[in-house]
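Deliverable D2.4 — example input (structure tokens):
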């Protein structure tokens, strides 16, 4: 039996040292391992380290690699995640609008904890690549997600209030009236989570932005609309209902009717500065957009309630596209 305090935990401490201090580019010799154990208040003999390394490899399946020509150094080899995989996940976390800045930082640290401290620093340095992202305001959405998942699991309807953005700020739609819906699926698309639910009052499937759902509550009534949900073909629903687009980036100034505040907030996030007109019948907003046919289609969808003010090049490009579209629609007419 071990004689010194901490001996029973020696194997765990040794694994933790290998996990945080070594990788394919950084190794530790046995004397260095002994020194690091000593710093943790654990004394050990050189021979016992070799035995412990063998135990970690043969009995617990860890990949302990001898490195260097002298083969005196060792490192933890294979891990649950390779560095390129962690790098990709960190990029996804940092670029997600759904996550708050605080939650993104927490998740990044958890991911960094899957690597050595050297690799963790490399992961933290890459965060700047994501650039500015319109993040969610608070963590209410995580609790909402949990409530909706529970309702789906329990086969129950949910009620909630729905948030609109007006010129005055955040407000509940229809004066705070609660929606009643049967939740069937949660879809992540375009950096946002959506609830796909059956609205019995309307008799059809609808989708709701989860970050705009407020005060969600599971109800006693069982869900309705299973057939309507199945008829909507869930596997292709997101592709039909939500669009993604890309193109060259331009900072564009738009003039919008007041009722388009939701659409602007949904697309560009809370960082978009809305400047109300003096008579409050509309507002101006300057946003960074990807200029593409899909962007022009988005603008066109709001008809005369949205106008491109600047830059002139984008405004003229939109006008030319409208003229070509009109000409194509009237071609061949007498």
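Example output (designed residues):
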């Amino acid at each position: 039996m071990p004689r010194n305090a901490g001996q029973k935990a020696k194997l765990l401490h040794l694994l933790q040292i290998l996990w945080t201090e070594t990788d394919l580019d950084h190794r530790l010799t046995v004397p260095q391992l002994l020194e690091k154990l000593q710093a943790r208040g654990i004394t050990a003999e050189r021979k016992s380290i070799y035995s412990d390394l063998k135990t970690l490899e043969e009995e617990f399946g860890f990949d302990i690699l001898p490195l260097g020509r002298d083969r005196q150094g060792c490192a933890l080899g294979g891990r649950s995640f390779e560095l390129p995989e962690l790098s990709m996940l960190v990029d996804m976390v940092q670029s997600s609008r759904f996550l708050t800045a605080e939650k993104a930082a927490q998740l990044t640290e958890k991911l960094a904890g899957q690597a050595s401290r050297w690799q963790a620093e490399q992961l933290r340095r890459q965060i700047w690549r994501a650039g500015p992202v319109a993040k969610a305001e608070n963590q209410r959405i995580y609790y909402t997600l949990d409530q909706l998942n529970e309702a789906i699991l329990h086969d129950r309807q949910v009620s909630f209030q729905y948030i609109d953005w007006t010129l005055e700020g955040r407000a509940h739609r229809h004066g705070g009236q609660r929606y009643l819906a049967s939740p069937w699926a949660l879809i992540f698309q375009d950096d946002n989570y959506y609830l796909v639910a059956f609205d019995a009052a309307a008799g059809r499937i609808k989708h709701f932005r989860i970050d705009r759902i407020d005060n969600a509550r599971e109800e006693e009534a069982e869900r309705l609309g299973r057939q309507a949900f199945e008829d909507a073909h869930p596997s292709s629903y997101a592709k039909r209902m939500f669009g993604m687009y890309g193109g060259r980036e331009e900072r564009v100034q738009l003039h919008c009717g007041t009722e388009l505040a939701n659409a602007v907030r949904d697309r560009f996030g809370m960082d978009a500065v809305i400047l109300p007109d003096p008579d409050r019948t509309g507002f101006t907003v300057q946003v960074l957009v990807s200029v593409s046919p899909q962007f022009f289609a988005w603008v066109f969808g709001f008809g005369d309630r949205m106008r491109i003010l600047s830059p002139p090049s984008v405004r003229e490009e939109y006008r030319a596209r409208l003229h070509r579209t009109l000409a194509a629609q009237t071609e061949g007419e007498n």
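The radius of gyration is 28 Å.
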